[in-house]
Amino acid sequence: MALTTLDPKTALIVIDIQKGIVQLPCAYPMAEVIDRVVEITQAFRKHNAPVVLVNVAGVAPGRNEQPKRMGDLPADWAELVPELEVQASDHRVTKRTWGAFTHTNLHEHLQEHGVTQVVIVGVATSIGVESTARQASELGYNVTLAIDAMNDLNAEAHTNSVTRIFTRLGETGSTAEIIALLASTHG
């Protein structure tokens, strides 16, 4: 679905742009993704639209076939990258599951600010971004995904999310398209 509009109360959700995650081997050049995330974050701030910065610092309980590695990670692993230039007005969320809404105050924060739409960017496309988009859709938010401002550990997983999943959860577009729409509706 092509981009149509941004609601008057649209928030940006930035997923896991943190020191430990951006160092992982990803499908696309991470520096370019970070540049786009910074660009869209600055645009939202310029228009006084809510910005939510999410990091992951732990794992959900329960068994799975992946070894749990959280105990041997560097101390700064969960810190957001300095390029984001965290502002006092940014809402911070630390999650311990894939999706940013589970066991956090994200939904309550967005509701307090009258948010009806979210734009989601970050890493990993098929994990944190997709899970958060699914949850946002299930909670009734209009969802927009800046597909050039996200990255994944696996190119096939990224493509699957972008082509098969995101189009069922909301609208997709480029960072530039979303910024232009933001300027025309919030300018």
UniProtKB/TrEMBL annotation:
CDD domains in UniProt: cysteine_hydrolases
Chain segments annotated as transmembrane: none
Top-level taxon: Bacteria
Keywords per UniProt: Hydrolase
InterPro entries hit by this protein: Isochorismatase-like_dom, Isochorismatase-like_hydrls, Isochorismatase-like_sf
SUPFAM superfamilies from the UniProt entry: Isochorismatase-like hydrolases
Pfam family, any one: Isochorismatase
Domain Isochorismatase-like: 10-177
PANTHER family found in the cross-reference section: ISOCHORISMATASE FAMILY PROTEIN YECD (PTHR43540:SF7), PEROXYUREIDOACRYLATE/UREIDOACRYLATE AMIDOHYDROLASE-RELATED (PTHR43540)
Protein name: Isochorismatase family protein
Organism lineage string: Bacteria, Pseudomonadati, Pseudomonadota, Gammaproteobacteria, Lysobacterales
